[in-house]
Write a sequence for this structure.
């Protein structure tokens, strides 16, 4: 083998070695824009990433090693007779089965992680997030707390309690108010938009979801430790100053409870002004149905129609406050939905008592004051 050939092969080997060294260095370096994050899913995504990366490095070592070995030991000089090609069925079967096995080994854990990434069961609380140009709206349906997150220069920050003000003042995320959640709690996010498409992305959570007008995207996360986590909108939603950064602050549960109380939790909502006292099913039933319906509305209906009953007209979700539909029509829509709209029926998901409580609440809240009471028997008859 000539010196020229040896030098050429040396350069190939050096390039291959450098490539593998860079890959190995990236694998060992935890700062290549990939971290374990602070949620269970983000840790699983990190582990999945490292598993796939390890498989790819092993494949690269095997392929480049075979290529270099073949180049060195099986290279023929010019003028030599070409070697006779031999056929091996076993080799063909092997190079068919091995890639299939590798793909299956990669696909099984990836599919499992993707399925659990979209699983919102087992949540402890719900937050509705609505994207706007120039702001994010955060609403806690179960606690009647609602506020907007603006750029720091646009908001006054007055809504922050004293215990969180000191933390917020040190933020460099450019927003006046973060989304506050309790650490160690599974939070389900109902994400939508009221104008154009927006994107919700926080690297430490391992989540990226689009906020689309007229559509609800749901996902959940659980911040394992208190901290402040920052993200950004991943959609082109207008001029640069329209994209408001995203900041989530996870605080200890007791501090979160104090924050909720400060911002209106446990405020009794005015009940219906006209009660059917003296006639079945009576005032006591109406009060109980109203309370139960309020809780069910917050969990099942507030993501679209809002806890305030005002809906999101631009997103195609009509208000329930000031509704003019009859009681029978209201029951029918709650059970079977409305064709040609995003309203899906809750008949397969909720029982007669639950649907009756929701309709009773909606017909007597937000100033509707119809005095209508819906009993489970009426719901059963409308199924």
């Amino acid at each position: 083998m000539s010196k020229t050939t040896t030098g050429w092969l040396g350069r190939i080997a050096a390039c291959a070695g450098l490539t593998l060294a860079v890959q190995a260095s990236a694998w060992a370096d935890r700062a290549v824009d990939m971290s374990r994050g602070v949620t269970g899913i983000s840790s699983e995504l990190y582990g999945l990433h490292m598993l796939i990366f390890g498989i790819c490095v092993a494949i690269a070592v095997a392929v480049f090693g075979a290529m270099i070995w073949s180049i060195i030991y099986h290279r023929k000089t010019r003028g030599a007779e070409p070697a006779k090609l031999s056929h091996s069925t076993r080799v063909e079967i092997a190079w068919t089965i091995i890639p299939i096995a590798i793909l299956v080994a990669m696909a099984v854990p990836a599919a499992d992680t993707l399925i659990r990434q979209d699983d919102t069961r087992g949540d402890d609380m719900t937050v509705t997030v609505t994207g706007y140009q120039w702001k994010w709206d955060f609403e806690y349906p179960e606690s009647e707390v609602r506020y907007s997150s603006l750029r720091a220069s646009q908001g006054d920050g007055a809504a922050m309690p004293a215990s969180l003000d000191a933390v917020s003042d040190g933020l460099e995320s450019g927003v006046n108010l973060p989304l506050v959640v309790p650490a160690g709690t599974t939070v389900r996010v109902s994400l939508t938009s009221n104008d154009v498409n927006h994107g919700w992305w926080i690297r430490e959570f391992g989540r990226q979801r689009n906020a689309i007008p007229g559509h609800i995207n749901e996902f959940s996360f659980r911040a394992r430790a208190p901290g402040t986590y920052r993200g950004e909108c991943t959609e082109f939603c207008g001029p640069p100053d329209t994209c408001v950064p995203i900041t989530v602050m996870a605080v200890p549960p007791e501090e979160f409870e104090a924050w909720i109380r400060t911002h209106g939790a446990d405020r009794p909502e005015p009940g219906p002004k006209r009660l059917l006292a003296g006639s079945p099913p009576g005032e006591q039933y109406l009060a109980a149905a109203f309370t139960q319906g309020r809780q069910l509305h917050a969990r099942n209906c507030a993501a679209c129609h809002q806890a305030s009953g005002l809906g999101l007209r631009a997103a195609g979700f009509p208000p329930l406050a000031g509704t003019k539909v009859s009681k029978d029509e209201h029951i029918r829509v709650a059970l079977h939905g409305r064709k040609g709209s995003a309203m899906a029926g809750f008949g397969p998901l909720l029982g007669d008592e639950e649907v009756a409580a929701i309709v009773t609440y909606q017909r007597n809240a937000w100033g509707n004051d119809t005095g209508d009471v819906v009993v489970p028997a009426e719901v059963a008859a409308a199924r």
Notes: The mean pLDDT is 75. The longest helix spans residues 40-73. The longest strand covers residues 125-132.
